[in-house]
Amino acid sequence: MTRRTRAEMIETTRSKLLATARQAFATQGYANTSMDDFTAAAGLTRGALYHHFGGKEGLLAAVVDQIDREIDLRLQAISAAANNPWEGFRQRCRAYLELAIEPDIRRIVLQDARAVLGDISPTAQGYCIASMQELLQQLMDDGTVVAVDAQALAQMIYGVVTEGSFWIAEHEALHETRLQQALDGLDLLLRGLLAQPR
pTM here? Predict the structure, then answer.
């Protein structure tokens, strides 16, 4: 039998806690989950949770960070698969809004995390804005988008899709209707960026 290193054991413990907490937060919500319930489900102690995450709030922040990284990979794949850079940018912005109706993202990231942790983490926000700025600069350089300050424009578009996502996620009974309304509004706004309307 191969003996695991300390680093491997630490990573296994963290992974178990993250997976169990993510499932509990998605199905029951942050407020309705008990640290004892998900540490027991993971076969660990409350002490392990405190050691690795500092408490339930720290565990929520780690779950949100994990989801943010997954979202970023999904959005990059959408941009990369598009027929052209403009369509990639447009589809990426639309996908950001569409994520708001996925149950775990809606519940964990857009509802509970905002209520418990405040606005989106500065790290995730900064990365998303930088990525969007780079895409916009490319579109400006090739003449697709009217040339303005790419960072300012990225900040503004990020604000639109982020607040749109929160608005969509607010009421489960309305989220399909709100999603379509937000997508229509987003398309209208994005068309205004084009140097030559399509």
Answer: 0.83
